[in-house]
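#structure-requests
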Amino acid sequence: MTREFVFIAASPSSNSRSSAVARALANRLEARGRPTRWYSVRDFDPADVMLARAEAPGIKHFVEVVRGAAALVLSTPVYKATYAGVLKAVVDLIPPDALVDKPALGIGTSRLADHGGDVARAFAALFAFFRARSVGALVVLDDELTVGDGGGATFAAAAEDRLQAVLRALSLAVEEHSRAQAAG
């Protein structure tokens, strides 16, 4: 069975820009035969998240899915130069050893280019804590993205190029991780 690419979307909005970017990546992975699993911060009981109820059935299942994932992809709108606090609260539920050597990617959307670098550094620090294999961050500026009524995304050429580069890097990282695990 092929392991899933697990996505966690931080925006509470059902048609957010950051979720549209993540969905575009997920759709391209699925077109390559790679299964994805999608979580939104809306999928969690707020009390379970805020009170860190690790034994809650939904949280236990979520952690099992993350442990078994091929890769983890976090998406967020940039808030105050970093990822959303609710994303941090959800990520805090993941045990420190759950992502060791696992490919991980951060996606952020921002109005300001300077904040893109800030969120990329924040993702790098987060993935380093987990000892995950960071594939970096894909930052898309608001003026590089158009989101349609159905949630589909259209990218400016430079953002499309970055999305394609991240797709290749993430796919390669998962293949290398799978080979390393099979070797032993």
